[in-house]
Amino acid sequence: MATMNVSLPDPMKDWVETRLKDGKFSNTSDYVRHLIRRDQERIEATADIQQTIDEGLSSGEPRPFDFKEFKARMRERHGKP
């Protein structure tokens, strides 16, 4: 595992130390790795949403949505009254 030194202003250092006191993270490295994973997940989720938007935009002209027909299809598909 690689090592990286990071400089933080005192208020940020205090914040990290407070997060460690609640016991969820055993050390600063665990907390930083957690933040990096969350950032990676957020970026992936944003890319997924953007891809879905792009697919929707390129799918053609919008069509009217018939909610009653949609509900009937869902009831038929899932067997609910």
The total tally of domains equals: 1
**N-C termini distance:** 56 Å
Give the CA-based shape. elongated
Give the uncertain stretches in residue-range form: none
Strand content: under 5%
* Order of secondary-structure elements: HHH
Please give the share of residues in helix: 55-70%
Number of helices: 3
Largest sheet: none
Residue-averaged pLDDT, rounded?
Answer: 94
Q: What's the Cα radius of gyration?
A: 23 Å
Total strands: the figure is 0
Output the structural class: mainly alpha
- Oligomerization state of this entry? single chain
Explain this structure to me?
- The protein has helices at 10-21, 28-57, 67-78.
- With 81 residues, the protein is mainly alpha-helical.
- The protein has one domain.
- The relative contact order is 0.05.
- The model has no long low-confidence stretch (mean pLDDT 94).
Write a concise keyword list for the protein shown above.
81 residues, mainly alpha, 3 helices, 67% helix
Question: What layout of secondary structure does this protein have?
Answer:
Elements lengths: L9 H12 L6 H30 L9 H12 L3
Question: What is the structure about, briefly put?
Answer:
The protein is mainly alpha-helical.
